[in-house]
Write a structure and sequence with these properties.
With about 350 residues, the protein is α/β, with parallel strands linked by helices. Helices cover about 35% and strands about 20% of the residues. The protein folds into 2 domains: about 160 residues, 3-Layer(aba) Sandwich (Rossmann fold); about 160 residues, Response regulator (Rossmann fold), CATH 3.40.50. It has 11 helices and 12 strands. The longest helix has 17 residues. The N terminus is likely disordered.
Length: about 350
Amino acid sequence: MKVLAAAAVAFVALGSTAACGDSKDSGTGDNGSAPPAKKSVKVGLAFDIGGRGDKSFNDSAAAGLDRVKSDLNLDVKDLAAVAGESENDKYSRLKLLCTSGYNPVIAVGFVYDGADAANGPLARAAKDCPNTKFAIVDGGTQAANVADLTFAEEQGSYLVGVAAALKTKKGTVGFIGGCQVDLIKKFEAGFTAGAKATKADIKVLTNYLSTPADACKGFNDPAGGKTAASGMFDQGADIVYAAAGGSGTGVFEAAKDKKALAIGVDSDQYNTVSDASLKPVIMTSMLKRVDNAVFNFVKDYADGKFTAGATVFDLKVDGVGYATSGGQVDDIKDKLDAAKADIASGKITVPSK
């Protein structure tokens, strides 16, 4: 009860700053008639660690809701996970959203599956709120009222691995993961495969910033990201790929200090990074279109459509990809697009482990 009460306080406090689509178009059509009224949907959004403003994973989910506002009137409440919190805290957050009338409710991140997806925070909330439709990004809850939105991260990571191998001048690149879990190992596997397929003798350094034992705090640890990346640059790497959420900012700072390059993740971080002086070091980003997944899920819900179970967003549907902002991969775009086509056609099978 203490956990639920604390969540309620956070819910009220954050409500005033949550992204809302309350404004309605009061204009009229060309013939003087009022435009069709937009459907109204109350969406609950439970962020991963780092929350709105991480310039990466969580912000990509928020961007999906921002896009759908052009089609729907949204009443959105968002709450974020906190480092070190328990699975019961996560359950209480989801339960609070559904019992407060928000439907659908979107859980952003595998942390809402917990250690046992069948009995984890989201599974419990979905059971307690059978009339609420849920979605989880990167999850596998597999409940009748839960849509599991998953991605082929290894495929997008393969492409930026190719880019790293083509651009490295030292023959050594690095990978930094936010947490040592199977999901982030998919990023590493794809990146390494793409790099070695392009340059067989390339050296790939690897470092994980945290483990589940310390609540995967490495997704929101810019200082740790900077330290890890600096160490890799000192070991001879000249490009580092960061699959570490908000910690990526620290990796970019290290790249700037060492006059090296970095690869972003999830969002096009060349365009989302707050410090403009970091833009030149962001060679590309592995795009994970969480925004598309959230956008489609909410739009479908408003249209009375819901698909339980796993939906995979891969290269075939542009669920993953690579960014070209900044122009640093323009000269190798033909090679990246060739690899993309080979993966989409099945000619190349990218490992996920």
